[in-house]
Here is the input.
Amino acid sequence: MSADCTVPQQVSKMEMFAAHRVENTVEDGRPGQLAAAENQNGSDISGDGLYELHPASVPCRKSPTLEVEANKSPDLGKKGDDFPPITEAMEREIEAAFSRGNPNDVLSSAFKMDIIRLDIWRLKRSRWLSAQIIHFYLNLVTERSKKEEYPAVQAFTIYFYCKLATRGYAAVKKYTEDVNLFTKHIVFVPVFMNCHFTLAVIDIRKKTIKYFDSAAVKRKNEICETLFKYLQEESQQKRHLELDRSEWTLRSMRSHEIPQQENGDDCGVFVCKYADYISRDRPLTFTQSDMPYFRKRMVWEIIHQQLL
Here is the structure.
């Protein structure tokens, strides 16, 4: 299966402004989107060129059949570690980040990435997340996993699967030059295809590859197969060991098995929260009604570079 990494053409004025960060211009001399992505050799989600690379910063319109009431309130009755309260002080910080200001103001900088106000605006309700927000959030998940009580996590960028699916193992082998994937517990592979973010999860411990689609209209087992072939080559190249296919389980999760979005806006948030919960070995108990809460919480977490 080939991944569609193109930027949609019909966008609003605000989306065109977002695209300005991505477009190649003769004046600034920056490389093209995919060319710059090919220069990213890191195995984590930091890397040169990510600031300019937003293939999903200009999202396309989802099917009208997915459009339902977008302003559902969070389930305030939920308690526990998964839903820490947003305090009044946090609310003020979030509102300040959402307020009018220079769209290019840097509100958070880490992992060789800058998150600007324009990225944060995309965490408002009924807006599509930028790839930059997803990359930054997955970096926060990876950082948290370095604590002893959490599974060891590795995360790729959306460019990884795009290159793997279109150009094969040789195009991505440099991503793991400095890391042994087989010493990790969980590997996250975000996928951007057909104007939609999804997540593949490789669990080295359990020998599973699962595909999580928050709008799972059609199962995509071929994504899991592509990733298993990648693991086979990675194992042969780095460990000189062949993986036994019969020992691995590959599954595209069904819609009734995982939380599903009920609109055309929240796929990026679902990807981030799938990763958050899975990285803590927590069951996926959130729902569409929790998305407004998660969006606000993510603003605070990104600005403070700390997951609650």
